[in-house]
Amino acid sequence: MTGSARPHPGPTSRLKEAGGPVLDVARRAARGVRPAVVSAARALRHTWRASLQFRVVTTTMLLGLLVIVLLGSYLYQSISNGLEEDRVSTATQEASRLATEAQQAFDATDSTESAAQLGLFARDLVQQKLASPGADASRQVVFTRSLNNNSRTFVATVCSDEACLPSIPDDLRAAVSENPRRQQYKLTSISDAAGATVPAVLVGSQIELPVAGAYDLYFLFPMQREEQTLEIITNTFAFGGVALVLLVGAVAFVVTRQVVIPVRRAAVVAERLSSGKLNERMRSRGEDDLAMLGKSFNEMADSLQSQIRQLEGLSRVQQRFVSDVSHELRTPLTTIRMAADLLHDSRQTFDPVASRSAELLHNELDRFEELLADLLEISRFDAGAAALDAEPTDLRDPVVRAVEAARGIAERRGSQVTVTAEGDCVAEVDSRRVERILRNLVVNAVEHGEGKPVEIIVAGNESAVAVAVRDHGVGLRPGEAALVFNRFWRADPARARTTGGTGLGLAISLEDARLHDGWLQAWGEPGVGSCFRLTLPRRTGMPIDEAPLPLETPTQTSPVRPSAAGAGSRSAGCTDGPVPRSSSVADHGSRQP
Ligand SMILES: Nc1ncnc2c1ncn2[C@@H]1O[C@H](COP(=O)(O)OP(=O)(O)OP(=O)(O)O)[C@@H](O)[C@H]1O
Ligand SMILES: [Mg+2]
């Protein structure tokens, strides 16, 4: 009896055992299906947003479907009501005729001697005359004693086919008994031979039997034929509806194509125009709205092209003018320079006023020469004549030379200039141009640094080498970080006209950086200082992935060389706090970081 010790699993546990793996499979299948559904929904949403044609076709088809469903339901309802009314009318007429025939038959019969004889007569009458003959099942008959009949003679109920007393609703029987002179009918449903439910009309009326009193006659008319007719109509509607929706979709597709294709062409042409292909035009044929669009578009492109050409011409004339004037001025300036030098050298022999004038003339001539040199350089950039003479250079060298060049002005202003560097700083650059950029950045930092320390940081990464020049002087107001690179822009033009530079320094620096496919970027905040970062690709033509130094607050790196300018040490780095919101940042270069 060892086996009986094992408990028999209850219905719940059996369900769990059977359901566990099934549920797991279902869950796994659901997990597998979900990403597919999500990605399909995403693709559908994307197509919906991206394609006007898809939107129009889908909307038209959905609206068409809605109209067809509404119209189809209405028509179906009216047709089904019509068929039903028609059937009820023929059923009541037929029932009335048959009831009259039955009444006449009973009135004329002489089988009234016993209830059994009367019953036999009634059965013969129902089955042979009143019920539909043979296999025709278009009507069934029930003959039964009325509810209000109190006669002692009792005739048995007679039914044709399946229809029998239980299938006659009590309310109909009561209605027939209450109002024996009137015919009553009711819509009901029966099961056919195949078990399907079929609607039917049930008509009841009362007849008077000799001796036995009032008896009811019920006729059941199944509406099979009407059902079949409705089924055919429904199928036709469904098929026609689907065909109509597809047709509407196809029409919408063709129509929208006629509009969408020219619009797409216009978009392509507009894109080409904006990429600089000014000769691109749209094809415009005919006189319809799309042709008008094409014509207007082309007129707009024409006018834009002519204006751009005009501006280009004007700009070329201006550049030419600047270049010519600068060249022409060089010869007289050389003569003036010689004369001014002569006067400057012999100023000790002049009276104090003339001596001061000779000194001023000498200084202003220096500035004039610088301006002329800058203008000639800018003209070379504008004419596309500037060429890169790149060779592998350790960026620390031009940095040190630039700092050396600024030593005098740094000493005068009392600024400490420190240089720190980290890692491999060798890059393929034009050292003359890089030195010019750095000289300008260092001089600017010292000039606007208000005697505070200036920190220069050099660093490199895989793709680039960068130099950041950070000062703690006047800084830049919001928006000025972009303006500083404009030609002749100076924060304080009045001061700069007498003491400062020409305002071309950063414009030339930017052109030099661009020639290297590099970036020159500025950050500044009033009263906090500025930071200018030059980022150059390690090799010519190599794209810069990322700048090796942050723009706003370059991190401190290890000191590199002994003092290059001023009285300061070189350990300090550009490591200030986080950048406040009001700071000004601007990026310039062949590609924005
Ligand atoms: N480090 C800085 N801090 C604050 N302002 C600056 C700084 N560097 C440049 N600027 C502003 O940008 C202006 C333009 O600088 P840029 O170097 O182009 O011209 P410049 O120094 O005035 O003349 P140039 O360099 O041609 O002799 C300067 O006049 C100054 O107002
Ligand atoms: Mg400058």
Please render the helix and strand layout as text:
Elements: H1 11-50, H2 52-108, H3 115-130, E1 140-145, E2 158-159, H4 170-178, E3 184-191, E4 197-209, E5 213-222, H5 224-274, H6 289-345, H7 352-382, E6 391-394, H8 396-405, H9 407-413, E7 417-422, E8 426-429, H10 431-447, E9 454-460, E10 464-471, H11 480-483, H12 493-498, H13 505-515, E11 519-525, E12 529-537, E13 584-586
Parallel strand pairs: 7-9
Antiparallel strand pairs: 1-2, 1-5, 3-4, 4-5, 6-8, 9-10, 10-12, 11-12, 11-13
The structure holds adenosine-5'-triphosphate (ATP) and magnesium ion.
Residues 440, 443-444, 501, 505 line the site of magnesium ion.
Notes on the structure:
By secondary structure, the chain is α+β, with helices and mostly antiparallel strands. The chain is built from 13 helices and 13 strands. Helix 5 (224-274) runs parallel beside helix 6. The protein starts with 10 loop residues before the first helix and ends in a 7-residue tail after the last strand. The chain binds adenosine-5'-triphosphate (ATP) and magnesium ion.
